[in-house]
Amino acid sequence: MDQRQAKARIESLVAEIERHNHYYYDLDRPQIDDEGYDRLVRELADLEQRFPQLARPDSPLRRIGGKPLENFEKHRHRTPMMSLANAFSRQELEDFDARARKGLGLSPDAELTYVLEPKLDGLALELEYENGLLVRAATRGDGEIGELVTQNVRTIRDVPLALKPQGEDLFARRPPAYLNVRGEVFLDRRGFERINRERAAAEEPLFANPRNAAAGSIRQLDPAIAARRPLRFYAYAFGGAEGLEVRSQWEWLTLLRAFGFKTSDLIRRAAGVEEIQQAYEAFIARRETLPFDIDGMVAKVDDFERQRILGEVSKYPRWAIAYKFPAQEKLTRILDIQVQVGRTGALTPVAILEPVQVSGVEVSRATLHNQDEIDRKDVRIGDSVFVRRAGEVIPEVVAVVKEARRGAERPFKLPKECPACGADVVREEGEVVARCPNRDCPAQVKESIVHFASKGAMDIEGLGPKTVSTLIDAGLVRRVADLYRLDAETLAAQERLAEKSAQNLVQAIEASKTRPLDKLIFALGVRHVGEHLAEVLARAFGSLDALAKADEAGLTAVFEVGPEVAGSIRLFFGEPKNRELIQALFAAGVRPAPPAAQTGEDPFFAGKTFVVTGALAFASRPEAEAMIKAKGGRTAGSVSKKTDCVVAGEAAGSKLKKAQELGVAIIDEDELKQRLGRR
Ligand code: IVH
């Protein structure tokens, strides 16, 4: 294809994609299935990549998934790259197994084979091979859209650039026309230490853990630098193929090795919960001796057909689970205890620790939660303590080694005055948390701005705690609305900000103006309103104005909103200062995008055909059908190949059986309720 042809094709693709967007988003009447849509998007992405000079600034690719690409090209995965649900106990593992059996219509003692793999602690990559050659590699991104990092991935030695030929006769067998391989890119401990040694020598900031180092390396813009990072890659998941049939995870892993990929040596099969549990314990025993970090074990239903039947719940397949290892605890010493003031004024005592490695991460601070916890555990400055990191949460002090005390340890009491502003600290009846009541407290102001800009909120890149401090100290920002008045020149005049980062920051702030409504609601920092509730509220009220005006009854009418949450929302919007702030935000041009599901449509239901059978407890069958329709679904009276999903209530009979025979997805009442947003 030459440039002229490419230009014409790009134009027609853009027009077509826009048209489908319009049908899908505005008219609620999709004219094409997801696959067809993906194909258009992919073709456009491909052309934009091959002819970057032709990529249009208004390309629809730039809108999908939010952020404009700055460095790497965006890449829409053929099929979403899913996440894994976690289990933290044997009970949760058993629940998972029981759900899988139920979904498959298997009795508790029927055979159900799982493949067990280590849960590697790196980041997921997708590799695409066409006719045996590596053509694209992409990060997972948000699961739908990742970034093309092909150049960097080519530098990883574990990644075959060409698939090894299969079969006896090397030349008779052709590689599959298309192969989509997913796996984990990671660093082993030695590689991680080497990188940090080099960075220390170059006086560059160190990576906190191997995972961050791997992520930083794969997103390194200069492939020459990436090539020097000792990245590893283990393949573990199937993302699709043409010209190759794969029937199970076990077969896939075998094929992967034959194609020349590395897979973990720890992989094995298990036939039920008992065997999974035993393998899990064996994994834990091996954990420390492995050359790299693993943070759990993944159990996957082996059979692909069964995987298909089980399907997924939002981003989580119902056929796999990550059985997480217990948190690691390490011994260290408390050097000091400091008090942090959060955005709601909560005073949190924080232990300053002698730095220690916990599950591959250097820990030098740990939360002590509150005074009651300190008293209960009798934590003193100078104590030897066990600290623990569980998943992503902040490390905490678990217990004190009292036998190690030598008499110089000092007890600690939270101050009576706020360490940031000097206001008298209050602790309300029945509350464990002590608070600074001063809404103008500089610490609270700072934390609320940091929260506003944070990832799950307005996601203003480059506006972290340090920059916020700089802006506050310079008197440029006193509340979040002030952010929208900053200009690059003023910012660049600040010592800590280079001209380029000043410009980037202004752009990032500008881009945040149109974040979805739920992000803005969350960003405001209303007490008790986390990311999830913010989403619920955005959907229920559709605008900030409507939410602000809602009364107690209107709020509690929303499923999931109880009196406590309602009270705190009313309190927030009742405060004149907050109302002024919201006005100032709007005056500054903040225009949150209304929630997509405002029409009531939900991608789980939209355009799909459901059959409800058996008795439901929460609603009559016609009621349940009406609710499904309200979410954009269709309902039918009998099961056929065209049925997408059967809802099986109590004592479901022949329709359920038929669904099982046809391999139609089956959900139970609980899941339907959850999908409908009822509990
Ligand atoms: S399978 C459909 N297998 O865990 C499931 N993921 O929490 C797709 N991970 O994004 C993932 N080891 O980065 C799978 N053996 C393994 C894994 C693994 C690590 C990561 C992966 C994924 C995340 C999900």
Protein described:
The chain is α+β, with helices and mostly antiparallel strands and about 675 residues long. It folds into 6 domains: about 5-55, Orthogonal Bundle (Helix Hairpins), CATH 1.10.287; about 95-325, D-amino Acid Aminotransferase, Chain A, domain 1; about 330-410, OB fold (Dihydrolipoamide Acetyltransferase, E2P) (Beta Barrel), CATH 2.40.50; about 440-515, 5' to 3' exonuclease, C-terminal subdomain (DNA polymerase, domain 1); about 515-595, DNA polymerase, domain 1 (Orthogonal Bundle), CATH 1.10.150.20; about 600-675, Rossmann fold. About 35% of the residues lie in helices and about 20% in strands. The strands form 7 sheets. The protein has a 5-stranded mixed beta sheet with strand order 2-13-10-3-9. Strands 16-15-14-18-19 form a 5-stranded antiparallel beta sheet. It binds 2-(butylsulfanyl)adenosine (IVH).
